[in-house]
Design goal:
The protein is α+β, with helices and mostly antiparallel strands. The chain has 3 helices and 3 strands, in the order E-E-H-E-H-H.
Length: about 90
């Protein structure tokens, strides 16, 4: 069975990046290696994995990713810190 993950990165400039993948370790390595000079995270390296959520269905992962992308930085930081009351 394949699993999908929504992940959140804290970039060197203090901003957040949210993505979905089926291989978090590989994707994190790609972000930090800067393989794509046009990638949003390229100029914001290094990045640190600060949140991850596993999903069985890709559609659920994509829906959660879209929701997180709409959140404010304060709300993302609260999620990162496990402050669920603030979320």
């Amino acid at each position: 069975m394949r699993y999908y993950f929504v992940y959140m990165l804290l970039c060197a400039d203090g901003r957040f990046y949210v993505g979905v993948t089926n291989n978090v370790e590989h994707r994190l390595a790609q972000h930090n290696a800067g393989q794509d000079t046009k990638a949003w995270t390229y100029a914001r390296r290094p990045v640190e994995l600060v949140y991850i959520q596993e999903f069985q269905w890709v559609q659920e992962a994509i829906a959660w990713e879209k929701q997180l992308k709409r959140w404010s930085a304060l709300k993302k930081r609260a999620l990162m810190n496990g402050d669920y009351d603030a979320v």
